[in-house]
């Protein structure tokens, strides 16, 4: 009995397992849901990441593939969350994704969209800090139509795209780079906040 070929989304999950695990450990180590101060640092990293991906979520060539892409972006929600908590918007951090190929951009979006599934657990933790889908934790809220459904729609489109070998390499590269970038932004958010605190 021949096995079904592995789907692109399954391969992306496999090749990003290590950077994903590394990021999970970094998030846990910073304990973003222990205090409001720690959460605002985590939120700053989320805002920076979504802000950097805004150009991808609004790229016409990508919207042609995924019609509801602009509505999927969470940059505005993260900005509103920072406003709720009277936290100034962090300045840009060097090294943001810039002009990726279409396939590479889809790798970045795969990671961003996938993180909405994990956000279901994070929003439960956020309620302990008196945060909610309408105050301070909007960027973790459930997307219209539900998390699972939105993810399945995205994956169906992604898995069905006819890619060349080079494009497969680029999407893999984009997905790994996205995890690594969020790690950089997380580290920046916590380090810069620690430096700003009075000794």
> CATH top level?
Mainly Alpha
The poorly predicted ranges are none
Strands, total number: 0
- What CATH calls the topology is Heme Oxygenase, Chain A
Percentage beta strand: under 5%
Please state the structural category: mainly alpha
The mean pLDDT is 95
Radius of gyration: 17 Å
User: End-to-end span in angstroms?
Assistant: 66 Å
Would you identify the CATH H-level superfamily? Heme oxygenase-like
Secondary structure tally, helices: 9
The coarse overall form would be: globular
Instruction: Provide the helix percentage.
Output: 55-70%
Q: How many strands, what sense, and barrel or not for the largest sheet?
A: none
How many domains? 1
CATH architecture level-2 label: Up-down Bundle
- In sequence order, what are the helices and strands, one letter per element? HHHHHHHHH
Give an account of the 3D structure.
By secondary structure, this protein is mainly alpha-helical. The protein has a single domain, classed as Heme oxygenase-like (Heme Oxygenase, Chain A, Up-down Bundle), CATH 1.20.910.10. Helix content is 67%, strand content 0%. The termini are far apart. The mean pLDDT is 95.
Helices and strands in order:
Layout: H1 8-15, H2 17-30, H3 36-57, H4 60-63, H5 69-72, H6 75-84, H7 102-126, H8 147-160, H9 165-196
Describe this structure in a few short sentences.
This protein has 199 residues and is an all-alpha fold.
Defining key terms:
mainly alpha, 199 residues, Heme Oxygenase, Chain A
């Amino acid at each position: 009995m021949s096995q079904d070929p592995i789907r692109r989304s399954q391969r992306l999950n496999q090749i990003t397992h290590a950077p994903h695990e590394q990021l999970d450990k970094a998030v846990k180590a910073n304990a973003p849901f222990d205090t409001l101060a720690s959460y605002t640092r985590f939120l700053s990293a989320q805002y920076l990441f979504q802000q950097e991906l805004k150009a991808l979520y609004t790229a016409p060539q990508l919207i042609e593939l995924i019609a509801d892409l602009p509505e999927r972006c969470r940059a505005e929600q993260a900005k509103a969350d920072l406003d709720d908590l009277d936290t100034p918007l962090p300045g840009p951090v060097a090294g943001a994704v810039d002009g990726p190929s279409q396939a590479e951009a889809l790798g970045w979006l795969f990671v961003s969209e996938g993180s909405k599934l994990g956000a279901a657990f994070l929003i439960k933790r956020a309620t302990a800090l008196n945060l909610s889908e309408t105050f301070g934790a909007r960027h973790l809220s459930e997307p219209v139509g539900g998390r699972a459904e939105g993810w399945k729609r995205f994956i169906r489109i992604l898995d069905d795209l006819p890619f060349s070998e080079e494009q497969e390499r680029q999407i893999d590269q984009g997905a790994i780079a996205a995890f690594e970038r969020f790690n950089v932004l997380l580290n920046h958010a916590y380090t810069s906040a620690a430096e700003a605190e009075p000794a």
